[in-house]
Amino acid sequence: MRLGLVALIVEDYDPAIAFFTDVLGFELVEDSPAATNSGRPKRWVVVRPPGAETGILLARADGERQAAAVGDQAAGRVGFFLNVDDFEAAYQRLLAAGVTFMAEPRAEPYGKVVVFLDIAGNRWDLIGPA
To answer: Which residues form the domain of 6?
Structure first.
């Protein structure tokens, strides 16, 4: 058993793809035409960190309920965790790319960590080794 994908609701595909590939350095695994359950066009867009098996399905909000969840997918909590081998290099690269950080990096028993926002406003932990 393995976790294949996690859906992330976004406003639009292309800006989300750009954020995840250009800013975070993820790979665009798939971008294919698809249809909603009611037949409206959509895209099947999957990104993932290089070498990872689990990916993120970038799902464009469809309707008011989904649009309301954009940027609040984890109800204001950190809902996503990006582990990196070189914390300082990753932090500096994201800073240079204009990523919004919620505080300064701090040391925790599990590693160096800082909270950042993705393109939709969801909170992520950037985590490096202890």
So the answer is: 1-70
Closest CA to 5 of 36, 46, 43, 37: 46
Domain identity same for 48 and 76: no
Q: Measuring CA to CA, which residue among 107, 111, 109, 108 is closest to residue 127?
A: 111
Round the average pLDDT of the chain to a whole number and report it: 96
pLDDT digits (tens, 9 = 90+) for 53-110: 999 999 999 999 999 999 999 999 999 999 999 999 999 999 999 999 999 999 999 9
Beta strands in 4-84 (DSSP E): 5-10, 27-35, 41-48, 55-60, 78-83
- Shared-domain flag, residues 14 and 55: yes
Domain count of the fold of the chain: 2
Q: 42 to each of 33, 39, 61, 63, 67, how far by Cα in Å?
A: 6, 9, 10, 13, 15
Cα–Cα distance measured from residue 90 to residue 46, given in angstroms and rounded to the nearest whole number: 22
Q: Are 127 and 114 in contact (CB under 8 A)?
A: no
Amino acid (one-letter) located at 84? V
Residue 103 DSSP class: S
